[in-house]
Automatic annotation (TrEMBL):
It comes from Medioppia subpectinata. This is E3 ubiquitin-protein ligase TRIM9. The keyword Coiled coil applies. The keyword Coiled coil applies. One of its GO terms (cellular component) is neuron projection. GO terms for biological process: axon guidance. It comes from the Eukaryota. The lineage of its organism: Eukaryota, Metazoa, Ecdysozoa, Arthropoda, Chelicerata.
Length: 370
């Protein structure tokens, strides 16, 4: 009877090892599939970006061809310099926008190291050692060093560092450190929706500090961290709550500006002398709440049409805001104004702008109004 019980115990422990290996196998396969999907998604995005640039360039070429066919010399002289500038600008930015190098490597730079596990399996015997509630047996107890035992355990809860946890504008920074008696491969930071909703993963990596931008203003967010290693995920840290700023402070974003736009005065003033419409965005995005800001007209010449409003980050930078579906604007000259979206304008109003005019923009995300 003792022999049968002993054999049953051996079979049970071996079955547990086999089940653990199968579980780990599925986890590794899932990771490989996710990595493949990620590479394919980045490749599709690169193809779409190149296609869009080619279509834009083809459209410019067709327009230039039609302009050259025009027999009206006076009209050609009026638009000739503008066409030359546009073509020169496309030529200068072509190699930057049409980067043919892959955005991500097509190869899987990963190697599965099974040797330590194979060595442990080959050396299983009846010299007792207890680890994580399972009885392992090996003739070489020194093989299971303290570091290896530590690596085979799930990590403990990370420890948040209050002095490194802060909020600025609509961003939150969190700092933590690993549990002192844990081996950690990476961390997972989770954040709720700012309204006591469910948590979602916002960061996964080896760093012990993370900044999350683009959050809602005047909101309290809860955050927590957990660590993981090859044995699995550990328990969560304590939950910390951080509040974003009540009011947004923002400036112009030079990285989003068209090259024809000059930004000065600590990114608070922009100037454009181009005959074509150019776009610059702010360095802040909104997704809810009520927001208001003002634009002062310091210089105004030639009765130009100025377009002001809101847009998504991927709006076209070389056409008036509102010409596509990614922007909403009011465009105004010295006599009248219109609202423009998806190349459709309405609500014409008399009354234009001049030097020293102040234009206010109200964005009400609660009622979806601009």
């Amino acid at each position: 009877e003792n022999s049968l019980n002993f054999e049953t115990e051996i079979s049970s422990q071996c079955d547990n090892l086999i089940a653990t290996i199968k579980t780990r196998k599925q986890q590794l396969l899932t990771f490989a599939r996710k990595e493949k999907d990620y590479k394919l998604r980045i490749l599709r995005e690169q193809v779409m970006a190149c296609t869009a640039k080619l279509q834009q360039t083809t459209g410019l070429i067709q327009f230039c061809i039609e302009a050259l066919k025009d027999n009206d010399n006076m009209s050609y002289l009026q638009i000739g310099s503008s066409l030359i500038n546009r073509v020169s600008n496309v030529e200068m930015t072509w190699h930057k926008d049409m980067n043919t190098s892959p955005w991500v490597s097509p190869e899987f730079d990963l190697t599965l190291d099974c040797q330590p596990v194979l060595m442990a399996i080959e050396q299983l015997n009846f010299s007792q050692m207890k680890l994580n509630g399972l009885i392992l047996r090996s003739p070489l107890k020194e093989f299971f060093t303290p570091d290896l035992v530590l690596a085979l355990r799930s990590p403990g809860p990370p420890i948040l560092i209050p002095d490194e946890c802060m909020s600025e504008n609509n961003g939150i920074t969190v700092g933590w450190q690993p549990h002192p008696s844990s081996f950690v491969e990476a961390f997972i930071l989770e954040l709720d929706d700012g309204n006591n909703g469910s948590f979602r993963e916002v960061y996964c990596g080896k760093e012990t500090v993370c900044t999350v931008d683009g959050l809602h203003f005047n909101s309290i967010y809860r955050l927590r961290v957990k660590a993981y290693n090859s044995s699995g995920e550990g328990v969560y840290s304590d939950v910390i709550s951080l509040q974003t700023a009540d009011v947004a402070w923002f400036a112009l974003d030079p990285l989003s500006a068209h090259p024809d736009i000059i930004i000065t005065n600590e990114n608070q003033t922009f100037t454009c002398d181009s005959y074509e419409h150019r776009v610059v965005l702010a360095n802040m995005a909104f997704s809810r709440g009520v927001h208001y800001w003002e634009i002062n007209v310091d210089r105004y010449q030639n009765n130009a049409d100025i377009a002001l409003g809101i847009a998504r980050a991927d709006v076209s930078k070389d056409k008036m805001i509102g010409k596509d579906s990614l922007g909403w604007s009011m465009y105004i000259d010295n006599k009248r104004s219109w609202f423009l979206h998806a190349d459709r304008h309405d609500r014409r109003c008399d009354g234009g702008i001049e030097r020293s005019s102040v234009i206010g923009v109200l964005l009400n995300m609660e009622r979806h109004e601009k």
